[in-house]
Amino acid sequence: MAGQIQQETQVHGHGAPTMTDVGSEQTVVREPHLLTALLAAAFRPALAARRLDRLSLRRAWLLHVAMTLVFLVMVACIAEAGPEFDWRRVRRLPGELLDYPDELLTEFRLRPALTVILSVVIPASVEFGFVALAVVLAPWGARDEPLRASVASALRRVWMFSVVAFWAVLLVTAVQTAFARAEARYESVHPPPIWPGLQPPVQPTVPPTDPDYQRLNEEWAAQMRAYTDATSRYNQQWSAWYSKKPWYLRSHGYPLATTLGFLAGLWTLVTLMRAVAAPRSSPPIVRDPMCEACGYNLTGMAADARCPECGLGVVDSLGEHVRPGTDWERCPAMGRMRTLARVFVMSETRPADLGRQIRVTGGAGAHRYYAAAWMPVVFVVAAFGILFAVSAIDEWQSFWWAPDVGIAVCVSFSTSCVAGALLVMLGSACMVGWWISLKAMRNMWPAAAQIAAYLAGDLALWAMIGAVIGVGLWNWSWQPDGLRQAALAIGMPPQSLFMGLFFLPNAFMGGRFLVLLARGTSAARCANR
Questions:
Q1: For the chain: N or C, fewer Cβ within 10 A?
Q2: Please, which residues bridge with residue 18 across strands?
C-alpha cells in the first residue's frame, strides 16, 4: 500500500491549490474559483461539488437564495420579452420591480390570506422541497458516517446545484425562441390560408305540415353543401401549406422544445445525483469488529474461534474472503451481459446473499453503473408502451399524420418514466435505509443505496409488467363490449375499475421491491468493511 497513499494539504481560499503526493511524484491540482465552480456545476458536477464542499451550510443557503433570485429575475425577463424575445420590452422590468412592494402591500390590504400564501407559503414550500430532495438523494452519496452528516452533505450540494436549473431553463427558452422566430419568419413569407369565416347553417325546425317546410329544407341543404365545400377547400389548402413547412415547424406546440424540457429535467436530476455521489473527505468511523450474523462484538477473539452468540466462525466475519464485492464489481471474465443477468437473478431470488457481498464502508461505486445500465431498458419499454396505447385509439393514424409529435410524446413519456424509476430507487433506499439504521444503530444508507441500485433490474421488470397491464386495459377500455360493460356488470364506475386493475399489480410490485431492498440491506447491517 506504500506509494499508493495520497496525502492532501489544502490551502483555503478561492482557486486554492491542492498538493498531492503519489509515490515520489508531486502534482499541483488547482481547483476552480467559486464562481467558475458554480457555472460549471451542470457540466462537471463532481469537480464543482468538491470545490463547494468548503462552504458552510449557512453560506451555501445564502448563495442558493441569491442564485434563486437571479433565476427569478431571468424568468421575469424572459416572460417580459414575450414569445418573440424582444429585449426592448425588458426595459420596463426595473420599474415594475420597484413598484412590486407597493403592489404587494395593496394586495395584502385587499386579500391578506392570498397574499401571505403567495409571498410566504409558496416560497417556504419550495425551500422545503429542496430539503426533501436532499434527504431523498442523501443515500446516493452516503458514507459510513452519522446520518446527519450524509443529509448535510446532500443538502449543501443540492442548494449549490440549483444553478443547474438556470442552464435547463436557458436551453429550453433558447429553443422555444428559435422556433417562434423561425415560424414567424416562415409565415411572413408563406402566409397560412385564412378561414373564410363561414358558420354551419342551422337546420330549420318547422314541422312537416308547414307550407314552407320543403323550401326551407332545400335552402338549408344548399347552404350545407356550400359550407362543406368551403371547409373541404380550406382543409386541402391548409394541408398543402402544412406539408411544405419545414419538419421542425410542424405540429403546434413545438414538440422538439417540449422534449428538450423533459430531457432537461432528467439532466438536472442526474446532475444532482452525480454531485451528491462525488467523493468527499471525511474521517472514517473506527468500529469494533462484529459478527456478520448476529452483530456480537468480536474484539480480542482469535481467528480460529467462533462467535459465542451464534457459533459463526470469526474468520467468516473478519477474513479476507468476506464481502468480496458483487460479481458486477469484480468484473468477471464471463462478460458484462452475463454478469448483468447473474446479478439480476441474485437480486430477485437471493437479495440477502447480495447484501452479504457488498462492501458498506469501501464500495467503489460500481452499483451506480449497474443502475445506469438498466435505465435504457426502462426508456424503451415506456416508449413502446405509449405507442401501443395510442394504436388502440386510431390504429397509428395520428402517429403517421404527425410523426414528430409521436416521437416527442414517446421521448417525453419515457424520460418521465426513467426519472420516476430513479426517484423510486432513491426514495426507497432513503426510507428503508433510515428504518434499518434505527435498529442497527449505524448509518445504513450506503448499503441501502447499493442494494437499491442492484435492484434496478427489478424496476425494469416492473416497467414491463406495468406497460403490459396498462396497454391491455387501455385496449380493453376502447372495445365496445370491454371495460365499460364489465364495470356496469359489477356496479362500478369504469374509471374506478380501470384504476383498480392498474393500481393493484403496481402496488404489489412496489411492495415486492421494498421487501427485496429490506432483505438485502438487513444482511449488511453488521458489515465490517
A1: N
A2: 10, 29
